[in-house]
Design a protein that fits this description.
68 residues, alpha+beta, Arc Repressor Mutant, subunit A, three-stranded antiparallel β-sheet, 4 helices, globular
Length: 68
C-alpha cells in the first residue's frame, strides 16, 4: 500500500457512522445497515450503536478494489 493510500482515512473521524459509510460507498443507508448487520465490512457495536473503524474500513475497501 502506498503512503498516500495509507493516509486517506485521516480525513475522517477514527470511528464512522453507517450514514458516513453509506456516502463513501454511494449506497443507501438501509443497505449500509444491512451490510453492517451481515458484517460485510468491519463493524463493532457500542450497545445498539453501530460504528465502523475508519482505518480498517479503508483497508477493506482497498482489498475489494484490488479484487476487481
Amino acid at each position: 500500500m502506498s503512503q498516500a493510500q495509507d493516509k486517506k482515512h485521516e480525513n475522517y473521524p477514527r470511528l464512522m457512522t453507517i450514514p458516513e459509510v453509506a456516502k463513501i460507498l454511494r449506497i443507501g443507508e438501509a443497505r449500509a445497515y444491512e451490510y453492517a448487520r451481515q458484517r460485510i465490512f468491519p463493524v463493532f457495536y457500542l450497545g445498539r450503536r453501530v460504528r465502523v473503524p475508519t482505518k480498517q474500513f479503508f483497508e477493506w475497501l482497498d482489498q475489494q478494489a484490488d479484487r476487481g
